[in-house]
Design goal:
mainly alpha, 173 residues, 3-stranded antiparallel sheet
């Protein structure tokens, strides 16, 4: 185990393998946020395309935007399978937000050389006990894949429900 301090000459060598994956994750998560905003617009019948900017991005808290997608989705469909599918996607979204927050916020602490892992010191808000968020290049790459997969699944599900709702609205007098 290596406790590298800010002045250690080896610190950049330990950080370097993480730079590109963290950048890729930031871009993938940005795309996910854009999809969440599009979902809100789509569910509100704003006839947005995935490239259009959304006023939903003005809601700063991502968890609030996810909750809005959930609420609007439930208003538009009573299909139990689709609701269950959305619940599973939202569960994955929340896990991705936790990972994103751990990865991008707070100081980088100890590098564990034998596991090629960075530990980021944290404090449990419930009991104030210290713990460490651990991150590897592999975990970042896995979360990049999951971010893309979850965003695609969310987009596909919301698009289908919004389209069906629009079609029903057009048929109704």
């Amino acid at each position: 185990m290596s406790r590298l301090g800010p002045s250690s000459p080896d610190i950049a060598l330990c950080q370097e393998p993480f730079w590109q994956p963290i950048g890729k994750f930031v871009f993938a998560f940005g795309e996910l946020e854009k999809r969440i905003d599009w979902c809100i617009s789509s569910l509100l019948h704003a006839k947005a395309t995935p490239q259009d900017p959304s006023v939903a991005s003005q809601i700063r808290n991502l968890c609030s935007r996810v909750a809005i997608v959930e609420a609007l989705f439930r208003l538009l469909t009573t299909d139990k399978e689709r609701r269950a599918e959305l619940r599973a996607i939202v569960k994955q979204l929340r896990a991705l937000v936790i990972f994103r927050n751990g990865l991008l916020h707070g100081p980088w602490g100890e590098y564990v050389e034998d596991r090629w892992t960075w530990q980021k010191p944290r404090t449990d808000p419930k009991d104030l006990r210290p713990w460490a968020f651990e991150v590897t290049v592999e975990s970042i790459e896995e979360h990049i894949r999951l971010t893309t997969q979850v965003g695609t699944a969310l987009h596909k599900l919301v698009d289908a429900v919004a389209e069906e709702h629009t079609a029903r609205s057009l048929r109704s007098p």
